[in-house]
Amino acid sequence: MARPTPPFDGSCLCGAVQIHVTAAPLLTMACHCRDCQKLTASDYSLTTMFPKDSVTVTGEVITGGLKSATRRHYFCPNCLNFIYSEVGQGSGRINMRSSVLEAASALTPFVEVMTEEKVPWVTMDLPHSFPRFPDSLEALQTLMDDYAAQ
Ligand SMILES: [Zn+2]
Ligand SMILES: [Zn+2]
């Protein structure tokens, strides 16, 4: 499973928001938490993490979902498509929703998190699986290193 190579382009459902990414993904993830189930109106969210400075977002975005000092979710104001999140202040990373990218089908999740809240009919066979989240920044860095080494 090779890491897909940049650039990556994407858009929201209506096309008012356009995405362009110049860097390789840092990590791909599926999150089974209840928040993600509600946000996506489905069983889990799919995330492709990129360095923030490699991502260009064209068009207006609004925040939605649950807002906190360390977590912001961005949506298209017209079609209300969930586009990306910024998690952890000053982390320098953006959690792009894999589904808005044209390369979505090649962005195979490498890690699943929050399997504690997973719906019973979803089964994934991924290299890494966590009942909650990786418990430290070091653990996250190890996952990113593993992902880059594929
Ligand atoms: Zn839109
Ligand atoms: Zn989640």
Structure description:
The protein is mainly beta and 150 residues long. Helix content is 13%, strand content 35%. The chain is built from two helices and eleven strands. It has helices at residues 34-40, 137-148; strands at residues 8-11, 18-21, 27-31, 45-51, 55-58, 62-68, 71-75, 82-87, 93-97, 111-113, 128-129. It has an eight-stranded mixed beta sheet. A three-stranded antiparallel beta sheet has the order 1-2-5, with no helix packed on it. The termini are close together. The model has no long low-confidence stretch (mean pLDDT 94). The site of one zinc ion has 9 residues, from loops. One zinc ion (ZN) binds next to loops.
Topology as a string of helices (H) and strands (E): EEEHEEEEEEEEH
Enter the CATH topology name: Metal Binding Protein, Guanine Nucleotide Exchange Factor, Chain A
| Main beta-sheet strand count, sense and barrel state | 8 strands, mixed
Tell me what portion of residues adopts beta-strand conformation.
25-35%
Distance between the termini: 7 Å
CATH class: Mainly Beta
Number of helical runs? 2
For the biggest β-sheet, the strand order reads: 6-7-8-9-4-3-10-11
Approximate helicity band:
10-25%
Shape: globular
Layout: helices, strands, pairs:
Blueprint: E1 8-11, E2 18-21, E3 27-31, H1 34-40, E4 45-51, E5 55-58, E6 62-68, E7 71-75, E8 82-87, E9 93-97, E10 111-113, E11 128-129, H2 137-148
Parallel strand pairs: 3-10, 10-11
Antiparallel strand pairs: 1-2, 2-5, 3-4, 4-9, 6-7, 7-8, 8-9
The structure holds zinc ion (2 copies).
The site of one zinc ion (ZN) has 6 residues, from helix 1.
